[in-house]
Amino acid sequence: MSNEKPILGLTLGDPAGIGPEITARTLAEPESAELARGLAIGDAPVLRRALGVLGLDVEVNAIRELGQARFEPGVIDVLDLGIVTADLPWGEVSATAGKAAVAAIETATKLALDGEIAAVVTSPINKEAIWAAGSQHLGHTEMLGELTGSARFNTMFWVAGLKIFFATRHLSLRQAIDKITKPNIEHAIREAYTALEVFGTKAPTLAVAALNPHGGENGKFGDEEIVAIAPAVEAARADGLNVVGPIPADSVFHQGLQGRFDGVLSLYHDQGHIASKTYDFDGTVSVTVGLPILRTSVDHGTAFDIAGTGKASHGTMRAAFRAAVDLAPYAPKLPEIYPPAR
Asked: pTM score, two decimals?
């Protein structure tokens, strides 16, 4: 990358949700323009409608190719996909909205793979809408995995300097517990440790959360710590990784936020989500690791109930934008570390 400000592609997400509003607010802020060159990706009528709802006096520059972007104060450049019109109802699931959301993701991903933008910053999508449009993916992350040919993708939360990883994600709690095996945890440890190193942490310390109350109390409250988690930690330490645990989940995230660890491996979806979002909902950023491109995202949904009202906070989108700025210097080496599997 050159010494110029990085170009970040911000998808509008589901056009019937709050994505257009939080994107518009973020790109309209002078501070954003000082950090990077922001490019909205979606439909120009949707962005104009969002600006109207917000009462922001900002010009929309609808373009068909990146070279037409102006990147000027008081202007939001939008790569116009020409799918949705301004009369799309707010807050309703529709195949048209799903099609627009998917197209924005596909376009942003191609730009990132081609090296035209440094990072993709995504607004929330609605799973029912993308399924109605014909997508078979469970969500953003799975879609990005397929689009980039990656088999290693996973989620990293970044909050107050702490990076939180997930050994399991979109599974029922019962299914997630079944996945707590030594090989699976050992693999998750290594992937999390690699991500810490990839994104600039030298000689990181990674903590692994326990599954059971009080870490199982030596098997009295469950034996997953004894038969799976501790052996996986020991194997990683034997290979020279600075990993500790299992540490009871009611304290490990607090200790991480106090600076004792660089990262924490959460064992299931809500274990890490509750900790990070309770501490700082707007400041929690989702980063997809394991991809050959850089992607940051908000950590919330489409909020159909308040879409079109101008009430949505753009705090998480602003945080995701700024996280992409911070991580952009590492983007060029991602294809080497995470080469596509196919």
From this structure: 0.88
